[in-house]
């Protein structure tokens, strides 16, 4: 069993697949803390977790004029400044289950919690590429930076992905070769000893157990870059789909969801108010500027309170424009409509480019069930 050396996991996680291991936390845990504890951080593995010896670990950097560069973990930690960011990762398939309700899609049936927020520390990819011989004239022929994981399938094929070169080398891109998550060594499930963190970019490009970096004219040839993680028209089916016709997902669209109350919950009328909580995030470093909440299925709206830090503590300093990599948690306490026995609670977020979420799922349905970001709706019953 290639999965026999997979690590232990927290029993509270909702498992979508055991081998490979894919799991998400109960949604209400996400709004308990601004930084998601690593044990609860969603886990998305395509393959068995590789066991990497940190003492003999090597990272290879290829494709630059200076020839190949090989770095040990110690090199990465000592030869480059340590940089820390707070960044949210979201799987392209987050909220896929809502697309499945419209019409069956292919993929893991994720709920709303294939998204989490952590602090990441490591060397800047930019600094490592510069040390490996990157110069501005490389951009005349190179367009992409490819990443290969050390996890392999039975045929020896590794997980791989790529990101645009300009994201990788930009001083404002904040792409990290991270060796710490939430102030500790990266746990095995999240890429020990080194993973790429490409903030603002879909989870799939944040390659774990990083073994190789290749600067190239072409995108990664991996299955996951070429024939997966792309969006299509609702009218495209498996007979007509042409994966070459669509770009690989990189930045993700504006997203928000209600973490509590849960769908189908029964709520006590008690003091006549209701507290609703959730998360909101947008890709490409766009900052969430507002979350609107409705208790009547979208007829009337109120703006929620946004938070970017732990409860009761000073908020994290506001990020420079275009570098809002972390989510906002939001909360609203509103009076319950008198006599209401049932409510449809809805949320929708707005980012600083005024991108907004679509109101329903059908117009954005796609056969892979990715980019699922319609208004999130939760129905609850009110007990007298
Ligand atoms: N990197 C490797 N090497 N192997 C993988 O299976 N999964 C990707 C990405 N990086 C993956 C990987 C996907 S699809 C996602 S959503 C994120 O890792 C999940 O990161 P997490 O498990 O730390 O939450
Ligand atoms: Mo993913």
Can you characterise this structure?
The protein has 384 residues and is mostly beta strands. The chain folds into two domains: 14-245, Oxidoreductase, molybdopterin-binding domain (Sulfite Oxidase, Chain A, domain 2, Alpha-Beta Complex); 255-383, Immunoglobulin-like, CATH 2.60.40. Helices cover 9% and strands 33% of the residues. The chain has helices spanning 27-30, 73-78, 96-102, 125-131, 165-169, 223-226; strands spanning 14-17, 22-24, 43-44, 58-62, 69-72, 82-90, 115-124, 144-152, 158-164, 176-181, 184-185, 195-197, 210-216, 255-260, 266-268, 273-281, 288-294, 302-303, 305-307, 328-335, 342-351, 376-383. The strands form five sheets. It has a five-stranded mixed beta sheet. Strands 6, 7, 10, 11 and 12 form a five-stranded antiparallel beta sheet that branches. Strands 15-22-21-17-18 form a five-stranded mixed beta sheet, with no helix packed on it. The longest helix has 7 residues, at 96-102. The mean pLDDT is 97.
Please provide a brief summary of the model:
One of its GO terms (biological process) is sulfur compound metabolic process. With 384 residues, the chain is mainly beta.
Can you lay out the helices and strands and say which pair or pack?
Blueprint: E1 14-17, E2 22-24, H1 27-30, E3 43-44, E4 58-62, E5 69-72, H2 73-78, E6 82-90, H3 96-102, E7 115-124, H4 125-131, E8 144-152, E9 158-164, H5 165-169, E10 176-181, E11 184-185, E12 195-197, E13 210-216, H6 223-226, E14 255-260, E15 266-268, E16 273-281, E17 288-294, E18 302-303, E19 305-307, E20 328-335, E21 342-351, E22 376-383
The structure holds ligand MTE and molybdenum atom.
The site of molybdenum atom (MO) has 6 residues, from loops.
